[in-house]
Amino acid sequence: MKKLNMRRANLVHYARSELLSTMPNLETLHIVSGREVVNTPMLPTKFLYLKHLTVRLIGLPFSPSYDYFSLVSFLDASPSLETLIMDVTQRHMGHESVFTDSNLRQMPEHRHGYLKSVKITGFNSAKGLVELTCYILKNTVSLECLTLGTIYGFLRCYLKTSTKCDTMSEGILKEARRMVTAIRTFIEDKVPSTVKLIVLEPCSRCHVRGFKLF
Which domain of life does this protein belong to (predicted)? Predict the structure, then answer.
């Protein structure tokens, strides 16, 4: 089997620690995990053929005990990875903010020569998420496009899928402001000139408290 879609609780940990033994030839993996609590383990095993990885971490709110930065394990285990899509959308950001502790952790360098596109939906100011993004920028020599989006929901007026975007609460809009500040403070100056940075913000037409900073 070369393509797999899975959905269950604590799936990221399972996929990293157990899946390889039964499906070593995976090329496309789409996992949806709810209530992920245990961090993704660092292991020597490799997904040698994995090219496309989608990780959706869901939960209302998502467990603040999970360290987004531990997802580096999946990246380092996938030397052929070309696209990475993550969805970490939350109604409430419960993780430690990078503005609470701005001392960013470092991981040993591990060069990625095939990863071209990274998209993170639901991007927020969680320290581990900022650290993961900085790690990707530092170690991915092939990266062409990095998309960071804080937009909540699926309806988008500018995509003409609806006449109005999904409603965003004041709490989500407030976190969106912190997200943009986090990008400017910790990420923007680390983006190489060869990489296109796209920041998806709240809609200025549908979200009355929306804003335009990029």
Answer: Eukaryota
The Cα–Cα gap between 87 and 56 comes to 5
CA-based angle 112:201:96, to the nearest 5? 65
Contact 192, 137 (CB under 8 A): yes
As given in the structure block, the two tokens for residue 67 are 């360290």
Cα of 6 vs its chain's centroid, Å? 18
Residues 31, 15 contacting (CB under 8 angstroms): yes
Mean pLDDT is lowest, of 36-45, 104-113, 169-178, for 169-178
Average pLDDT value for residue range 62-73: 88
Residues 176 and 212: their CA atoms lie apart, in Å, by 11
Distance CA 111, CA 190 (A): 16
How many helices (H) and strands (E) the chain has is answered by 5, 7
CB 128 within 8 A of CB 104: no
C-beta separation of 133 from 184 below 8 A: no
Tell me the C-alpha distance between 168 and 8, whole Å.
27
Please report the pLDDT score of residue 2 as a whole number. Answer: 93
pTM: 0.87
Query: Positive or negative CA dihedral for 35, 1, 29, 25?
Result: positive
